[in-house]
Amino acid sequence: MADDGMLINFEVGDATAKAPPPKFKGGKWRDRVRANKTLRNGNKPPLPLSRCDEPERPAKRPRLDSSPRIQHNNPHHEASRFGSMAVRHGKPPSLGGMNINSNANPRGSGVTSRLFTANPEAKTDFANVALAEGGDDEEPTKPSNAPLSEEAANFHALGLSKRIALHLSSKLEMKAPTAIQKSTIPQLVKEDADAFLQAETGSGKTLAYLLPIVQRIMTLSFNEEGMAREGRKIHRDSGLFAVILAPTRELCKQIATVLDKLLRCCPWIVSTTVIGGESKKSEKARIRKGVNILIATPGRLADHLDHTKVLDVGTVRWLVLDEGDRLMEMGFEDELRSIVGKMRRHRLASRNKEGLELDKLPQRRVIVLCSATMQMNVQKLGEISLEEAVHLTAPRSSSNNAQQGEEQAKIEDGKAVFSAPAQLKQTYVVAPAKLRLVTLISFLKDAFARKGSVMKAIIFISCADSVDFHFDLLKGQPQASPPNEDDQGKPSKLSPTAMTTASAAYLTSPANPSVALIKLHGSLAQPVRTATLHAFAHSKYPAVLITTDIASRGLDVPAVDLVIEYDPAFAVPDHVHRIGRTARAGRPGKAALFLLPGTEEGYVSLLEPSDSSNATSNSITPLYYETVLKNGLATPVTSYPITTTAVEDEAEGRGQSWTQRAESLQLHLEQRLLAEGNNPLLDAARQAFRSHIRAYATHVKAEREFFDMTQLHLGHMAKAFGLREAPGGVGGGVTRRTGVHHKPSSSVASGGKKRKNGASGGMDASGDDRNPTAAAADDAARRMREKMKAVMNVASEFNIG
């Protein structure tokens, strides 16, 4: 029977088959090339390189620090130690029962690094810290910035008229003043001296200087008994009597809101605001109509003083510099020098243009400087503006606990030492870089797990790009887009907050099934910023505001129960103002600061109170990330915006322990970034990472020993943004943000020529041709902007003002 195949015999000689040349691995590529060349020449390679034909070496163990590692009670912890070996053999390990397939990472091997391995050891000794979960049951600390008792003081006894005192008690529900108001109001009502007003955040500094101003303006029309004076009725065209400067537009709006409520008892006194981002023409029209109290930002006021002839400062008696430290930090020193100089050079009018005697007003220009801190720049501003000023603070009294805990900034050994309101409970969370994102979500999820425990929370982040990314990541399923036309067939207009508010994902619970998510930063248009802040302040549902330092100064939002500093402040004074958004006017509040283990833990030493008598009430309690994860992930996360492989595994019950739920949540977030068609979120994560690293390098010099760039693990930090590897381009410099709502404005004069904007972004609304003096002012403004760009070249990216 014939064979079906063909048999071929090969003659094999005596010589053995030549083995393929060995390949070398390890070391530098130049050494491997040199070793291969030496081997081809018949020589023995002198380099200690390993050969690929040698037996496989065991997997390289994870890199460890000199300190011992944290041991976790995780059944998959041992398996994770050999994860790298499984990858080398092409076998993806099983991470806590999660199904990781090739679809999870279409651009890579589909294997993610573990969250609980290779993390640095925390320096804080948590074994000696009582991590009591029932801390809310403790006896509350008596507040240090609450109003005093009615027996101790009342507004009428401080020198205010019965009309104002009755309005405060009946309409504004303010029965008694705070400690700083008790010290300030009599001084400003009776005396004409300059004043430096210093008190802790949330203690009522705004009303402390507004009430004396309104009271003394009212005396032009009424006597002390409240009877009207003959022929001395004040109205909006009687003259400008007070100018109030604030560093940000949001703070100007808030001061205007407080003043409007106060002026309801005397509606003939008119106030208005002139700030950047709004029409300069409409501002000039309001000034032309007449105004008695003007609230402004320094740049826009300086521009109006130069180009608005109807703005007469001859009758101005008060100049208030609110948040003086922030005014100096934002580079307004030249504008403030110019404003103060023009005020002093202008002759003080004894009567207005109608012939009304202004004898009841101060007979000199009174300058009031307000600040919650006393830094070197505040002292410099005081030297520029104040003359023989009186220092006004809240008095300390050992018999009145409501007046203790005064926040002062003292200079000790060249460092500023601060204290917070006594009723504010502060914690700092030590979380490794890889676990920052899941720890933040767990912290918020636990905070909103009980109804009424937290109504509003503010998360401070270092830069605007990171705010945008975290808002897009944490928001829920986007709602259907509104129709392009309304019922009448006209194009519909989107709400100003359409892109800044959404429902939150991951944070909801049966007690709070709906949580609003809101973002705010300086790259948003001014109408959007105003509407967004209003939406957060008046939200009737639990809400989370993700913001930069733009919301850290002076803003008084009702019912803010929690402040989270996800990124530490650039300086200790900024930290004081951040946590000052809660625990205001005697209300309780909580603040949490996220720190990386290692050198950042030493930053707490700058925040601890220096006064031993207040050490108990103002001490900062450490909190380990394991406690946060256990509390937040005690129940599964249910409100996922999209379904991923990690979500399916969680639904099948594969992740039951808090460690497995944390890894499932992290994997889900990474899968969202890599999902097909979701590249904008991935690009946003990369840009947020780059901006965050750049912002990390901008801490003040005195604090860089705690925020050391050389100690920052970029690969671990990338996981905090849902990335599996650190993107490049971090050191490429600041990139101008795109998609910003601001548009370059230009106006066409009557002659038909376009002119450049003035010092604050607008031209003279009258449309008259600029004279040489105005051109010189424009040139000076341009040089100033170039100087500011060199000093604050990161302002457009970090949006801190």
Notes on the protein architecture:
It comes from Zalerion maritima. It is found in: Nucleus, Nucleolus. GO terms for molecular function: ATP binding; hydrolase activity; RNA binding; RNA helicase activity. Its main location: nucleus. Its EC number is 3.6.4.13. This protein has about 800 residues and is of the alpha/beta class. Among the domains are: about 20-55, no CATH class; about 180-395, 3-Layer(aba) Sandwich (Rossmann fold); about 755-800, no CATH class. It is about 30% helix and about 10% strand. The protein has 25 helices and 21 strands. The strands form 5 sheets. It has an 8-stranded mixed beta sheet with strand order 14-15-16-13-17-18-12-19. Strand 5 (about 270-275), helix 8 and strand 6 form a beta-alpha-beta unit.
A few lines on this structure:
The chain is an alpha/beta fold and 801 residues long. The protein has 25 helices and 21 strands.
Helical content band: 25-40%
Helical segment count:
25
Summarize model confidence as the mean pLDDT. Answer: 76
| Overall body shape | elongated
Biggest sheet, spatial arrangement of strands: 14-15-16-13-17-18-12-19
Briefly, what CATH class of the domain at 179-393?
Alpha Beta
Distance between the termini: 96 Å
Instruction: Kindly report the name of the CATH homologous superfamily of the domain at 179-393.
Output: P-loop containing nucleotide triphosphate hydrolases
Enumerate the spans where pLDDT stays under 50 for 5 or more consecutive residues: 50-58, 64-111, 131-137, 397-418, 480-489, 612-616, 735-773, 787-801
The count of β-strands is 21
Any idea what the radius of gyration is? Answer: 32 Å
> The biggest beta sheet, please?
8 strands, mixed
CATH topology of the domain at 179-393: Rossmann fold
**What percent of residues are in strands?**
5-15%
Name of the CATH architecture of the domain at 179-393? 3-Layer(aba) Sandwich
Structural class by SSE content: alpha/beta
